[in-house]
Amino acid sequence: MKKIFFSLIFFVPFTLSTFAQEIQLLDSTKWLCQYDYNLLEDSTNRNSAKNTAMVLQIGSHLSKFCTSTSLTGDSIHYYNQDVDLNTYTQLFSKAMYMAKPGSLLAMYVIYKNYPTPGSMFFTAYGDHIFYKLEQPLKMVWELDNQQDSVILGFNCQKARTSYAGRNYTAWYAPQIPVSEGPYKFNGLPGLILKICDTKNEHCFTLTSMKQVNYFQPIFISKNDYVDITPKEYNKMMKNKLISLLGTLQGGGTVTFNNEEDKARAMKGLKIKNNFIEKF
After folding, report:
1. What are the backbone angles phi and psi of residue 121, rounded to the nearest 5°?
2. Which of 261 and 134 is assigned the larger pLDDT?
3. Kindly report the CA angle at 233 between 228 and 237, in degrees rounded to 5?
4. Minimal CA–CA distance to 226: which of 137, 128, 110?
């Protein structure tokens, strides 16, 4: 029931909104990095941990970071642009049903070095609107040049930074000379393999990395984006969760097998308050 509920409240509206969209090819994937994103959805409850599979596509000129579910949706959209809505919805729904549900707090897409080198492009969907945020790619790091740990066979060095209300420790691999990482993190002399805030409420860990020897597109949907600030994004997501909660409380269009399932879903929405960026 949980997976069906997750798909109904988020991906079905998103599917219908993206069906007729045009897409723009930006780059092709050279390296594909899989990260496990472990976050506390409720900052007051250590038992509210949620794991979400995230993907970093690194191309020749830019990168894209999103959930693995979003990447699956991208592939369906890219390779089925000529099918009818019914076929498209069936393909999308089947893929979402098979996917592992992630956190609603990770439903965003981040492009680095786009639309221009040195810039970052953040996109999110909510209230039937596509939002965007453009920021410079600039982070100040304090480097520790001693080898600290080994992750996936790579000797890692430690670095620290502060960003959007949190302090972070990162482990990066100088052997992988790519100034990239999960989420918005960038700017180190090597790929970031792990990064956590000092309270361990948000932690990204690399689980696999492979060189891509086939064509895997990195594209962006051509939408009429509405500008949003990070603070406004948090507010928009809070309102979205409140709206979904209201839908459940009022009966709405989502049905459950029993009251216990409904109560569990409502509780899950209430605790999602620990956004990665704090204001």
Report:
1. -125, 110
2. 134
3. 140
4. 128
Where are the chain's structural domains? 2-39+54-137+212-270, 142-206
**CB–CB of 15/80 below 8 Å?**
no
Q: Which residues pair with 37 in a beta bridge?
A: 52, 204
Judge contact between 154 and 176, C-beta under 8 A: yes
Residue at 56: amino acid letter? L
Q: Identify the CA nearest to 237 among candidates 200, 266, 274, 263.
A: 274
* Mean pLDDT computed over 194-213: 97
Token pair for 137? 């790619």
Q: What is the DSSP letter of 21?
A: -
pLDDT at 111 over 80: yes
d(CA 111, CA 164): 18
* Beta-sheet pairing, 226-227 with 129-136: parallel
What is the C-alpha separation between 116 and 89, in angstroms, rounded?
34
* Measured CA distances, 194 to 40, 138, 176, 228, 244 (Å): 17, 19, 13, 28, 33
**Residue 78 and residue 245: Cα distance in Å, rounded?**
33
Torsion angle defined by CA atoms of residues 269, 271, 273 and 274, in that order, rounded to the nearest 10 degrees: -130
CA distance 152 to 205: 10
Q: Which two tokens stand for residue 189?
A: 């002399």
- The span from the CA of 187 to the CA of 119, in Å, is 12
